[in-house]
Each structure stands twice: as structure tokens, then as C-alpha cells.
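2024-03-11 09:14:02 DEBUG pipeline.ingest accepted 1 chain
2024-03-11 09:14:02 DEBUG pipeline.ingest length=250
2024-03-11 09:14:03 DEBUG pipeline.predict start
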Amino acid sequence: MTQRLKTIAMIPARYEASRFPGKLMKDLGGKPVILRTYEAAVNTKLFDTVYVVTDSSVIYDTIVSAGGQAIMSIKEHSCGSDRIAEAVADLDIDIVVNVQGDEPFTNVEDMRNVLQVFYEEDAAQIDLASLMTPITKIEDIENPNNVKVIVDQADFALYFSRAAIPFRRDRDVDVTYFKHKGIYAFRKQAVLDFAKLPMRLLEASEKIEAIRYLEYGKRIKMVLSHSPAIGIDTPQDLEEARAILEKRQP
């Protein structure tokens, strides 16, 4: 019988955001976005513990006052993986899932599927796992805000890019484009290693932190998802999220 891995969720939460400052504290159906995301992660019942890890006392106080668990970052961090690495350094865990703070509708099936890979035959080869979803609209494929991923035959990531990859030189070849969805499930050691390794040129060029794992030889298992990613990056996204929530609530 396979031993159960001790699994937690971490939600990195910066107050500032270049495209939409303060978005995590914006109202979404009577609660801040970050609290909606925290509650969605807890309600999956897949984690031993869920934490929000933040540099903001406002976000920290919001989560704690609602009965949730939060951790204040000690250092300044440029990305979510670094923030998580600091937070989990002294925790007795096997797997940590990075849940995006601006995705309050992350679903149970996606999270369950990304965790399941650590119990399958090739689990020993996997340093971290993430999600990808097919995209077909040309505007989505060419949009640099949508990170694309290409994989090998076993669904291990070969590369991530903001460009349209693969490039279709031969238009008769039928290829599928995959958008990277930003849920990561890390082995603890993988995220600790990430924080110690300097950024290299490919990551610096693309501004995609997943590339650092590939550049240093880590293996990323990609899991297929058919549910849409509903992130809040702009005020328009927030309005759309409010409409979605209103439809879902009785």
C-alpha cells in the first residue's frame, strides 16, 4: 500500500500587483478575493493544512480574522516559489501546492489530479507537477499573457513560453496548443532548491519561473485539465468573476 504523502497548500499573496494593485483585497461577493481563494482551497478537503503566505499585514489580518491560517514573509521575494520556500523550510511536509491567490474558482478535480501523479508509477521521476489546458483561438495562442507549454510523450514539460509554441512551419501538421495553468504541486526539496538557484537567461527573458526548474534539470509532470482558468488580473476580470459567483450562489 502506498504511503500517504503529507500535503499542504500555500497561497502566495502580494498586496501590490503591477496590472491591478490591491486586487486580492477587492470585494468578490461580500468577501475579499484572497479569502474566497483560501476558502476554495480549504473546501477541497485535499490538504492537511492551507496557508496564505504574504508580505501584507492587511491580507494577513483578513485571513486570520476569518479563522484561517496565514504566515508573514520575513524577506522580500520576487516570485511565489521563493515566498513558499521560506514558509515551508521548517515544516514537516512532503508536497506543497502553490495555489494562485487570484484564482478563487480553482476546482477540486484539477487539484486532485495534480496530486495523484505523486502516487503513480513514474512518481519517483517527478519533482513537481502542474496543469495545462488546450487552447484553440488564435488570439489566445498568440497572447503573451498566456504561457504555453510543450511536453514529451510522457507529459513531462519540455519548455514554457509566452510565444506560440510549437511554431507551425508546416500548416498541414495538426498540433494542439496548451496553456499553462498556474497551479504547482512541489516536492518540498524541489521548491527549496529553486530558492537557492540563481535565475538564468531563459527565465529572465520569458519571465516564467517554471523555466528555472527546467534549466536546472528538474522534471515537471504536466496534467491535462479541461476546466477554464479564471484568474483576476484586471478590473474587467473582477467583474466577470462577480458575475460567475452570482450565477453559482443560490
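2024-03-11 09:14:41 DEBUG pipeline.report The longest strand covers residues 177-187.
2024-03-11 09:14:41 DEBUG pipeline.predict end
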